[in-house]
Every structure is written in structure tokens, then in C-alpha cells.
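Per your request, structure below.
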């Protein structure tokens, strides 16, 4: 078990390198995605988004919760690793064959003929990624995000250049397809190079059953989450158009950049760290509360700020042809700002080995979400986005129910701890909106909004003596 300063040091190092991994990689990908989006049309992105649900469901079955089970298990063995490795490959090949034969029906469902060939090519990602699942899990177990950062940066630069070249030369949606497949292949090659692990010629049913008893519940909950998260793209692509889906996917993608990536940093590091102190109730509760406040301190202002500058941001970054995504982005930001709080609450259930609680929550939340979706679909995509905000807030109530049972930190306690951050962020958003209304030039609106918002938030947090700011500064000072 990691103790005292050793745990703190390991956590800080993990967060630092995970942050470098996420934000150097995402920064590079963000730049390339902007350049590519300026060359392509929203409908090109819509075509790729239509396949999201099929690829995501397949990937969920391939992993089947085994990666998380391996990280959570204390006395894992080489037999465990080899068993999961072979399982992943067999399931990946099965789903690739399934999607190959399903491709004509997918194209017919959306009434887009090119989807038949696109499905068969992009599904190669499933096979490539299945070959490196164990290597990725080993990096997480070791909290070795430095190596992951190297892999991610190399892959992001290489695949970004390829995607930009193809988009510039008129490949359209195929530029995105080939970029995705090459990214998966290169990532697998690099993981094998940096993580020198070779599977043994062994498959243990005992190991499989033991890991699957934990992972199966995560698989079920993961499938529910995956299907629900992609059902918006499925419905929009079918009911509306690939152009409308392209606008929605780009707005959703921008909203997810800060929210999902910072959450990924915190979740990827906090899970193995919290697992190491899972039997020390007081330390676990204290660490968990600190992670919740820190994530909100970082995420809330970013999401509110992005919503405030959405208009000049979209016009400057993607040009006016993407202006239909502006209002969608503003709404989705208020849904995604709660994402890290959801994730860390659910993280605690996995740390405590309560994947049964995890599954129950997912079933309840997805039924609730589908009901709200069915109500909003007939109106418009905007109504669907507002529905996602309502769903996110209601889900927070459900997610904190078991957290309260496990460590006595429920919904009202969390809202109370986060209220000062939320209010400060909303005030910042209002100031940014007022500031950009005074500026006429579009690019100047964006710069002014970012500068004023950032300065106000940090200076205000300093004057009001936010503990979260002190902790961030202390981490920066130590590093």
C-alpha cells in the first residue's frame, strides 16, 4: 500500500504526466481538427458520427470491463493478463466480421451508400486496439503516464499530418476515416514498443470467471452508457440529416475537450491511487472530497467560459459555415460541466468493488435519459440539447446516492462544497458576455473574452481565498 507522502508524490506525478499526455495530445489534435474542419463540410463529420454507436458498442464488448478489473485487482498475475489478451482479440475479430456483413444494412438505414465501405474500413480500428489493451492497462497500473504521453504525442502528430494531407487533397469523409484507422494502428505499435510485454500461451477459465464477475457489471453499465451517449447521433442522423449531425457532433466535441480530458486526467490517476487506499476509509473519503473540489475548480470556469465565447470561437476557428453549431455548443457546455463530478462519484464505486451499484445506477439513469430524449426529439436538436442538461443534473442526484452510503458524502454535501465555485464561474461568464458585447471585431471578441474571464476567475479566487487555488499553486510550486 502506498502511504503518506509517497502516495501524494505518486498522485502529483501521475496527474502531471497524465495532464501532459492529455493536453499535449489533445492540443495537437485540436489544432489539426480545426485545420481539417476548415477544409471539410459538416456533412463529412456527420457521416463518421453515424458509425459511433456501432464502434463504441463493439469496443465495450471487446474490453468487457477487464481493463478496469485488472487495475482494481490487487493480486493480479501473468495468467490474468494473458487470458484477457486472448479474449480481447477473439471478440474483436468477431465484431469486425459482424460489422463487415452489417455494413450494407447500416448504409441502407441512413440512406447513405458510402457508409458500406466506410464501415468496413473504419472497423479495422477494433482489431488494432484489441492488440494493445493489456499494454495500456499495465501503464495505468504502474501510474506511468510519462510513457503514455510519449506515445500519444507521436501518434497525434503523425495522424494529424495524414488527416490534413488527405483533407487538403479532397478526400472528404475518407480523410477522417483513414486518420482514425492509422491512429489506432500506430498507437498499438507504439504501445508494444514501449511496454515490453509478451503474452504467455495460456488461457485460464478460472481467471476469466474471476475477472468477469467484476467486469461483467461494468460491461453492462458501459453498454448502457455507450448506447445512451451515442443515441443522440443515431437519432439526429436518422431523423434530421448528416449536415445537422455534423453540427451537433462538432459542438459536442468542443464541449467534451475540456470536460472529458480533464476528467480523464483525474480519473485515470485517481482510480489506481484510490484503489491503493481502498481499505483506509478516512483517507479514502478525504482524498475523494479533494478530487471533487479540484475537478470542479478547473472544469466549471472552462465550460462556462466556453459557452460565453462560443459565438466568436466558432466563427474564428471554423468559419461562418459552422455557425449552426454555436447555440448547440452553448447549451451542451452546461451539460458537460457536471461530467467530472459524475465520473469521480462513479469512480468511488469501482474503487470499493461495488460494480453492482454501478450497474443499478446506469440502468436508472439511462431509462430516465431515454424518456427525456423521447420527449424532446419531436421538437428540435436544440430541445434535445436542453434535455441533456436536465438529464445531467438529475443524474447527479442518482450518482451521489451510493456515494453517501459508502462515505457519507451525498448530493447536498457536494453541492454545498461546490457552490462557491459554481457561483464564481457563472459570474465570470456574465462578465465575459458583457465584455465581448462591447467589442466589434470577431477575433478581438474571442481574445478579450478569454483574457477578461481568466483574469477575473483567478484573481477573484485569490481574493476570496479559495482553498482549491492554493492547492493548485502548491502543486505548481513543488513541480
Amino acid at each position: 500500500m502506498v502511504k503518506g507522502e509517497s502516495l501524494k508524490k505518486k498522485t502529483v506525478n501521475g496527474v502531471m504526466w497524465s495532464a501532459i499526455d492529455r493536453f499535449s495530445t489533445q492540443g495537437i489534435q485540436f489544432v489539426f481538427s480545426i485545420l481539417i474542419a476548415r477544409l471539410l463540410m459538416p456533412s463529412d463529420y456527420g457521416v463518421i458520427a453515424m458509425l459511433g454507436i456501432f464502434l463504441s458498442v463493439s469496443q465495450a464488448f471487446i474490453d468487457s470491463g477487464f481493463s478496469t478489473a485488472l487495475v482494481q485487482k490487487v493480486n493480479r498475475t501473468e495468467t490474468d493478463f494473458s487470458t484477457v489478451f486472448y479474449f480481447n482479440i477473439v471478440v474483436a475479430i468477431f465484431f469486425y466480421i459482424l460489422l463487415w456483413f452489417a455494413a450494407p444494412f447500416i448504409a441502407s438505414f441512413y440512406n447513405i451508400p458510402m457508409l458500406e465501405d466506410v464501415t468496413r474500413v473504419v472497423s479495422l480500428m477494433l482489431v488494432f486496439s484489441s492488440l494493445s489493451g493489456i499494454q495500456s492497462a499495465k501503464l495505468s497500473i504502474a501510474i506511468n503516464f510519462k510513457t503514455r504521453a510519449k506515445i500519444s504525442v507521436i501518434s497525434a502528430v503523425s495522424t494529424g499530418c495524414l488527416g490534413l494531407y488527405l483533407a487538403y487533397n479532397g478526400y472528404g469523409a475518407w480523410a477522417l476515416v483513414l486518420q482514425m484507422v492509422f491512429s489506432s494502428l500506430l498507437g498499438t505499435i507504439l504501445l508494444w514498443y514501449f511496454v515490453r510485454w509478451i503474452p504467455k500461451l495460456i488461457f485460464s477459465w478460472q481467471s476469466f470467471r474471476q475477472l468477469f464477475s467484476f467486469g461483467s457489471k461494468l460491461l453492462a453499465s458501459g453498454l448502457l452508457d455507450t448506447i445512451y451517449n451515442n443515441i443522440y447521433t443515431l437519432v439526429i442522423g436518422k431523423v434530421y440529416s448528416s449536415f445537422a449531425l455534423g453540427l451537433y457532433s462538432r459542438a459536442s466535441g468542443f464541449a467534451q475537450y475540456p470536460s472529458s480530458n480533464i476528467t480523464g486526467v483525474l480519473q485515470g490517476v485517481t482510480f489506481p491511487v484510490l484503489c491503493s487506499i481502498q481499505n483506509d476509509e478516512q483517507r479514502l473519503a478525504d482524498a475523494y472530497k479533494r478530487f471533487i473540489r479540484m475537478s470542479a475548480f478547473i472544469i466549471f470556469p472552462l465550460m462556462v467560459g466556453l459557452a460565453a465565447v462560443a459565438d466568436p470561437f466558432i466563427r474564428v476557428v471554423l468559419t461562418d459555415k459552422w455557425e449552426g453549431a454555436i447555440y448547440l455548443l452553448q447549451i451542451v457546455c452546461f451539460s458537460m460541466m457536471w461530467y467530472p463530478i459524475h465520473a469521480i462519484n462513479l469512480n468511488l464505486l469501482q474503487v470499493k468493488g461495488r460494480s453492482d451499484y454501478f450497474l443499478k445506477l446506469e440502468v436508472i439513469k439511462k431509462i430516465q435519459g431515454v424518456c427525456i430524449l423521447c420527449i424532446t426529439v419531436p421538437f428540435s436538436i436544440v430541445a434535445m440539447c436542453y434535455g441533456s442538461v436536465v438529464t445531467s443534473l438529475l443524474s447527479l442526484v442518482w450518482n451521489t446516492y451510493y456515494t453517501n452510503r459508502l462515505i457519507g458524502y451525498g448530493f447536498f454535501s457536494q453541492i454545498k462544497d461546490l457552490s462557491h465555485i459554481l457561483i464564481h464561474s457563472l459570474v465570470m461568464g456574465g462578465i465575459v458576455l458583457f465584455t465581448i458585447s462591447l467589442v466589434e471585431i470577431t477575433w478581438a471578441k474571442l481574445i478579450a473574452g478569454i483574457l477578461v474571464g481568466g483574469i477575473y476567475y483567478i484573481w477573484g479566487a485569490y481574493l476570496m481565498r479559495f482553498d482549491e487555488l492554493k492547492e493548485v499553486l502548491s502543486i505548481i510550486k513543488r513541480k
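Confidence is low (pLDDT under 50) at residues 1-5.

Regards,
D.
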